[in-house]
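Student:
Attend to each token:
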Amino acid sequence: MKNVIGAEIEKTTGELIQLISSTRNEELNEIPFEGSWSVAQVGDHLLKSYGLVEALSEGQVKKTERLPGVEIEKVKNIFLDFDAKYKSAETLLPTNEPIEKEKLLSGLQKRMSQIKEVIQTKDLTETCVGLPFKGIGELTRMEWLYVILYHTQRHIHQMKNILKSLQKIVNKES
């Protein structure tokens, strides 16, 4: 269980880091169309969302009285439905200021190492108390790790679409 989620998060976050790293500086903070975020803003949103790792590491937990991974499929269906649009929680909204690539990457890598530590050192079957997921309820650490995984995958998809839109703009101008 720990090896599977650990490997999936490692692969997905590696793709995230690679995508941000390979984005040209002049495109990083560019918003392709009204209502969109830039690649950097999506990264900033993910960085803020990874603050969840603190609750997974230090938050109150209890013994789980159900199968500890039963909500994973629901979480997957929410985040990987790319046609569905969601509003971000206010606390996770990205800044409107330009974002430095190195600072963003450094922050993401720090959070990713904290996530890896939770996977390696915590009981993933325990339920996190006082941290309900909207529409589902309290989740286990393992289920929250899948929230991180699928949320990241959703936003990688979004970043790729932003970059495609920016490329179309460049192609029209040339």
Notes: The chain has a mean pLDDT of 96.
